[in-house]
Amino acid sequence: AGKSLTARAVIGLLPPAIRTSGGQILIGETSVLDATADELRRLRGSTVSYIPQDPLRALNPVRRVGDLFDEVLSRHGFGKMRDRREHTVRCLERVGLSAEVRRRFAHELSGGMRQRALIAMAISVDPLLIIADEPTTALDATVQAEILDLLRDLTHGSTALLLITHDLAVAANLCRRVIVMRHGKMIEQGDFAQILKSPRADYTRQLISNSLLEAP
């Protein structure tokens, strides 16, 4: 459908062979399409955090979780090593993980723990926007519900969430607005409750039916 590719364009992470052909991408006063490489590096993490689909691939397999946190925090100028370590523990605890996870490698964590570690890393620099790309894919129902609750809690403050999902039932738990895409094109957008009640596109009706959702 082009959901992930569109989201990657928001932070200037399109594959080398792909270019934007028009339009604007604005984050605050920054135009992503006109930004320099240095401006994009400052934007990523400090203003926008990205949670990729596959936490096992996203976490460096030869480095401990704590080292990955330290790299992110130091790159964004977060204090001394001791401060970064204490902040890492606070972020891990915020997502329901113990301080001991700092010493673990990715393969030593369950799928749900890896996803929580990525979310903790995403919030560690207090971004204004979190882009979550299929954050509950391949998780069992119980862990999926916990991750959705966690993401919902994060949006109660000043952080916005851009959620990418193929499951409207997941979106219904988190989103006020929805954009439905198919074959790289936007076919419907608007208030989630209104679209659920009166979908215009046949494809949207199919998605609602497959997700077993009912209009409010």
Give a description of the structure.
- The protein is of the alpha/beta class and 216 residues long.
- The chain has 10 helices and 7 strands.
- Strands 3-4-5 form a 3-stranded parallel β-sheet, with helices on both faces. It has a two-stranded antiparallel sheet with strand order 1-2.
- Helix 4 (65-75) crosses helix 5, helix 5 (81-94) packs across helix 6 and helix 6 runs parallel beside helix 7.
- It is globular.
- The two termini are 27 Å apart.
- The mean pLDDT is 84.
Which secondary-structure class do the elements indicate?
alpha/beta
The strands making up the biggest β-sheet line up spatially as 3-4-5
How many individual β-strands? 7
Helical stretch tally: 10
What is the succession of H and E elements? HEEHEHHHHEHEHEEHH
Helical amount = 40-55%
Mean pLDDT: 84
The major pleated sheet works out as: 3 strands, parallel
- Fraction of residues in β-strands: 5-15%
Low-confidence sequence ranges: none
Described by the principal axes of the CA atoms, the overall outline is: globular
N- to C-terminal separation? Answer: 27 Å
Rg (CA only) = 18 Å
